[in-house]
Amino acid sequence: MSIDMGQFYQTFFDESAERLEEMESLLLSMDIEAPDIEELNAIFRAAHSIKGGSGTFGFTDMTEVTHVLENLLDRLRKGEMTPSEPLTDVFLEAVDVLKAQLNGHIRGEPTAPESKDAVCRKLLEFSETFDGSHSSANPEIDNDIEASEAIYRIEIQPAKFLLKQPAILETMIEELTRQGKLETLQQPVIKGKKKKTDKSTPWVFRLTTSTSAKTLQETLEFLIPPKDFSIEHVVDVTHPAPVSDDDLGFGFFDDLPLPPPDASTDESVETVTTGAPSAVEDTGFGFFEELPLVPAAEAPASRPSGKPKLPQGASKTAASSGNGDSSIRVSVERVDQLINLVGELVITQAMLAQTGAALDPVTFERLHAGLAQLERNTRDLQESVMSIRMMPISFVFSRFPRVVRDLAGKLNKQVELVTVGETTELDKGLIEKIADPLTHLVRNSLDHGIEQPDVRIDAGKPAKGTITLSASHQGGNIVIQVSDDGGGLNRDKILDKARERGLAVSEGMSDNEVWMLIFEPGFSTAEVVTDVSGRGVGMDVVKRNITEMGGSVGISSEAGQGTSITIRLPLTLAILDGMTVGLGDSLYVIPLNTIVETLQPQAQDIKTVTGEGRMVHVRGEYLPVIALHNVFNLATDITDPCDGVLVLIEAEGKKAALFVDALVGQQQVVIKSLETNFRKVVGVSGATIMGDGTVALILDVPTLIKLGQ
Amino acid sequence: MAVNPVEAAEHSADTPIGEYLTFTLGSEEYGIEILKVQEIRGYDAVTRIANTPDFIKGVINLRGTIVPIVDLRVKFNLGTVEYNEFTVVIILNLGGRTVGIVVDGVSDVITLLTSQVRGVPDLVASIDTQYLTGLGTVEGRMLILVDIERLMSSQEMALIDTLDQ
Amino acid sequence: MAKTILTVDDSPSIRQMVSFTLKSAGYEVTEAVDGQDGLDKAKLKSFNLVFTDQNMPRMDGITLIKSLRALPQYKATPILMLTTEAGEAMKTQGRAAGATGWLVKPFDPNKLLEVVKKVIG
């Protein structure tokens, strides 16, 4: 019977990825001083499980690493070894290697063996350091990292010099005997009266030793030229090789009365007849004692009658719950299609509600009740459909313990990472996009925020700094915060730097405005450029990425107390908080996260600058006025900014005042692409469908600001 | 790929080429492959798009997707450009993109035979010859067959992003 | 009637493979995710054969074997340890707990069937 193992790969990949994540987080949270035995067991099981699976499915490179890892973990959990930081580092390195190997297999491009060999060697070194009896063993490893003891076949040619100097041979035998158990299998035959040695028959020895082949080679080379001997690795003794074809892979402890028709197949199994099964000739399976088996067919009937009889339903339930958590894999496209359909339903429902609202509530009481019900159902449906795309932010947060650990080590800082609200869910698309900006912020906090331990102690703070990552829902938004209890931002330093960079700053700027300067392109306050937070590229990119996601970023800081950066994101990429504005007979939506404020200017605030158009004077700043009706060539009666509204918009660090006829209202809108059936339109980032079914365009604020300059 | 009726005609005398939706633009009658037509609907309120040619009327909400509307009457200077309850929009599905065209009126769906179709002489219609696939004759009327997909994706229609943009 | 087999393993891929292999050969297979789950399921229904992994959360294989042997209906049921550990100590433990035999991971599906056939035909 041939079974295609390929069909199980995906399960193995998923499972292993999960186990590796689990191992990593357990290793990171492990208390070196007093490790929790349950945690050690869990780490061990994870390694063990990957080893079993990778061996079974033929991913032997992973088997090699997990095997060494498992041995160390086993000794650790049995208390034969003590945990240490360097050991954890090597474990984490092994996890990384395994992850790379796993990803290689997923892609179908196995990884090069160098990193595997390197990490195995490191692991083995630990093993040897802790184990005196193994300290003499060569730290070099063979491909066969399993073998703590192995059998070698050593063949030595009866060269002339050997025959003339029997002492060499004796020394050699003595030397080999010291390495392990030496047996002489064959000797050169001595023929004839002259006692001439037959040079066609070499000496053959069998050596069972824990010494590596390499060391043996070196030992013999001392005495005999390499051409005159050979060392052949026969078999490993301690563990049956996991991928050996000769090994039967199973066994029974005692004689097994086999089912009669199968008796003939008995010969294929080497059965160990005594109570002490021999490990050397392990067939891999066995029975402990005589099997009390009745002929198989009768087995169910001969069961003790006391066996509880259960209704069919009960056993079914039990069987189905055995498949672990039940879930199905669905392509994101199908989910998105569902989301789109529900989006349309929402619009239809809104249209019906609008139409219905015009009808007399008494006469159409039942219609109104039905419409109200429809609204509730639609909203619930939309929420549950949206939730399909939602993933807990722990998918992103989980990478940070490692990031913080590695970086704190590099910077010689002591940092504890606290995460709050890991179960907060956000859209899958956002999860993918938020990871990089967040990583940058965390690294930045660690590099620039948290002080060196001595500085902290001088400041009366604990030597160990804390970085807090938190996520929560606030209204229709996700709020993610990266806070540290470090030194806080330095106002003067930032202002100096800003002047140096030629940015418009004044002493009168509020703290908040000063803090926001660090998001300006090319801004960096690090006194020394480090390889950790980069060279001043970053914070501006962070801000741009977040803005692109429809989010906003804010910052608060207290000297000596720390800094906190707050990111606000929409729940999903498909929804946008917008301000609807009117222009002529059209409606436009401005993303709320780009709006600083709205105002109705007085005549004296508007200045006309020759060749540069109109400017508006707001709080000491002159901002260009962009008349939307000019940009879009639309007819409107309102041409004087004082008759309309100015919406102060900001993007990529630049501000402008967008002149529109009127503000209509604030609402969440579903973003629709214009480009699906049409092309890109300058100044427009997308479209949305309003409650009455008409289309409103969403303004592309960064482009509009550029147009205004 | 649109079947070229002229080429098909050279092979056999009288077999059906396919079904065509016919519509009028001014005094001219046009035919497009029925397979490209998604639906026919009335003219709804359209959201104008700034800085586009005047024949692009704007976009509408077609069951949740944003669909551009092109007025072929404006584009080809034909017929009376009025928008009322009799104005007809043909929603086309062209290689995954949905586009609406405004025409004077939709006449019929007819099956054309190879014998009814001949080649296109120059200067026969308001639409450039390169977008025409043949001339059909139906009950004495002349039917101009348009490769609507090619026409709508042409640069002059300004419906699709071009590489130089 | 098809022979029933309970396979207890915390690794979904191994479980899937064992289960698929045995089902393809006409056995009826029930899966359990750890020793405790295995014991619970074994109490609900009796099986002709039990396969169990050794290292599992909540309850390990040895404990499961001991617990099963303590049940009257499992006194005589063949129980095979399915484990990566074929060391002496593990075998002694398995033997003491009442296991019938062992099968070393990694194994291929044919090996699995071979062993199962030997035990329950």
Q: Can you describe this structure?
A:
The complex is a heterotrimer of chains A (709), B (165) and C (121). With 709 residues, chain A is an alpha+beta fold. Chain A contains 20 helices and 26 strands. In chain A, the strands form 7 sheets. In chain A, strands 18-22-23-21-20-19 form a 6-stranded mixed β-sheet. In chain A, a hairpin with a 5-residue loop joins strand 25 (684-689) and strand 26. Chain B is mainly beta. Chain B has a single domain (5-154), classed as Beta Barrel (OB fold (Dihydrolipoamide Acetyltransferase, E2P)). The model of chain B has no long low-confidence stretch (mean pLDDT 82). Chain C is of the alpha/beta class. Chain C has a 5-stranded parallel β-sheet with strand order 2-1-3-4-5, sandwiched between helices. Chain C has helices spanning 12-24, 35-44, 61-69, 88-97, 109-120, and strands at 4-8, 28-32, 49-52, 79-83, 101-104. The interface between A and B is medium-sized, with 30 and 25 residues. Strand 8 of chain A pairs antiparallel with strand 5 (101-104) of chain C, so a sheet runs across the interface.
Element layout with pairings:
The complex is a heterotrimer of chains A (709), B (165) and C (121).
Chain A: H1 9-29, H2 37-57, H3 60-77, H4 85-107, H5 114-130, E1 150-156, H6 160-164, H7 166-179, E2 180-186, E3 190-191, E4 196-197, E5 203-209, H8 213-221, E6 229-236, E7 250-252, E8 284-287, H9 312-321, H10 332-357, H11 365-388, E9 390-392, H12 394-397, H13 400-411, E10 415-420, E11 425-427, H14 428-449, H15 453-458, E12 465-474, E13 477-484, H16 491-500, H17 511-516, H18 539-548, E14 552-558, E15 562-570, E16 575-583, E17 586-591, E18 595-599, E19 606-609, E20 613-618, E21 621-627, H19 628-631, E22 645-651, E23 654-660, E24 662-670, E25 684-689, E26 695-699, H20 701-707
Parallel strand pairs in A: 7-8, 10-12, 17-26, 21-23
Antiparallel strand pairs in A: 1-5, 1-6, 2-5, 3-4, 9-11, 12-13, 13-15, 14-15, 16-17, 16-24, 18-22, 19-20, 20-21, 22-23, 25-26
Chain B: H1 5-11, E1 16-25, E2 28-33, E3 37-42, E4 56-62, E5 65-71, H2 72-75, E6 88-94, E7 97-103, E8 105-113, E9 117-118, E10 132-138, E11 141-146, H3 148-152
Chain C: E1 4-8, H1 12-24, E2 28-32, H2 35-44, E3 49-52, H3 61-69, E4 79-83, H4 88-97, E5 101-104, H5 109-120
Parallel strand pairs in C: 1-2, 1-3, 3-4, 4-5
Helix pairs in contact in C: 1-5, 2-3
GO cellular component, one term (chain B): cytosol
Main location (chain B): cytoplasm
InterPro entries (chain B): CheW (IPR039315), CheW-like_dom_sf (IPR036061), CheW-lke_dom (IPR002545)
